[in-house]
């Protein structure tokens, strides 16, 4: 059974994926949960940032608590950096 926090973290990831897909990025970038664990009553999540055109860039984020994901927007910030570091903007400017 998923806890309220699990549902909230999953909702954050789904909303991020939807907003990325609705933006100019299409289905190139997305985030997915790889693993979840519980330590001393606190849920920790492991997420992966994915790049469809450059899979060698796929990147695991460090383990983070539900509090950090909900409060500090770690997924959105990490995805922003991930997209900036890709070749997306270079290709976009060239019209590819």
Task: Please tell me about this protein's structure.
Strand 2 and strand 3 form a beta hairpin. The protein has one domain. With 96 residues, it is of the alpha+beta class. The mean pLDDT is 93. The longest helix has 19 residues. The chain is built from four helices and four strands, in the order αββββααα. Strands 1, 2, 3 and 4 form a four-stranded antiparallel β-sheet that branches.
Helix content: 40-55%
What does the main sheet amount to? 4 strands, antiparallel
- Rg for CA atoms: 14 Å
Terminal residue distance: 45 Å
Structural class: alpha+beta
Shape: elongated
Low-confidence stretches: none
> Could you report the average pLDDT, rounded to the nearest whole number?
93
The domain tally reads 1
What is the helix tally?
4
Strand content: 25-35%
Which series of helices and strands comes N to C?
Answer: HEEEEHHH
Give the number of DSSP strands: 4
Short description:
With 96 residues, this protein is of the alpha+beta class. The protein contains 4 helices and 4 strands; from the N terminus they run αββββααα.
List the SSEs and their pairings.
Elements: H1 4-22, E1 29-39, E2 42-51, E3 59-60, E4 64-65, H2 66-72, H3 74-84, H4 88-94
Helix pairs in contact: 1-2
Name some characteristics of this structure:
96 residues, alpha+beta, four-stranded antiparallel β-sheet, 4 helices, 4 strands
């Amino acid at each position: 059974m998923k806890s309220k926090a699990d549902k909230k973290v999953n909702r954050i990831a789904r909303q991020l994926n939807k907003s990325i897909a609705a933006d100019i990025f299409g289905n190139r970038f997305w985030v997915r949960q790889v693993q979840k664990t519980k330590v001393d009553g606190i849920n920790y999540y492991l997420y992966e940032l994915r790049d469809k055109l450059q899979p060698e860039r796929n990147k695991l984020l460090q383990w983070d608590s539900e509090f950090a994901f909900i409060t500090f927007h770690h997924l959105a910030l990490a995805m922003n950096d991930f997209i900036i570091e890709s070749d997306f903007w270079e290709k976009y400017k060239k019209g590819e």
